[in-house]
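User: Some background: our group keeps a shared notebook of sequences we're curious about, and every so often someone picks one and asks for a predicted structure to add to the entry. Today it's my turn. The entry only has the sequence so far, pasted here. Could you supply the structure so I can complete it?
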Amino acid sequence: MLKIIFVCSFLLITFISCQKNNSVEPFNYERDAPVWLKEKIDSMSTDHEYYGTKVYRYEWNKKFIYHIMIPISSCAYCELYDQSGSKTQITGDEMFSDFQRNRKNEMLVWEWRN
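Assistant: Of course. Here's the predicted structure to add to the notebook entry:
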């Protein structure tokens, strides 16, 4: 009986410690959004052409990429920016496939809400 309690305790402690290391802290807009992005979001939030827009952050090729998804736009990935605010172009099918396959840690940064 003592062995069972010991094994169960060990497994429980192991499980709890693994959970802490795998947790991802939620995105904090004030702390985590770059200044250029906050300025862009401020201008979009008053322009009705951006109604329904969402801004996502991904990790891709070891850097953050921000995707401004505008629902009324005819171009799905035209608004991609790197951490410094420089526009990133998806050129060709191979790059597009790589972005789709290898982006990770999708996080909603902002969305237009009424």
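Suggested note for the entry: The two ends are 60 Å apart (CA to CA). Strands lie at 54-60, 63-69, 80-82, 104-111.
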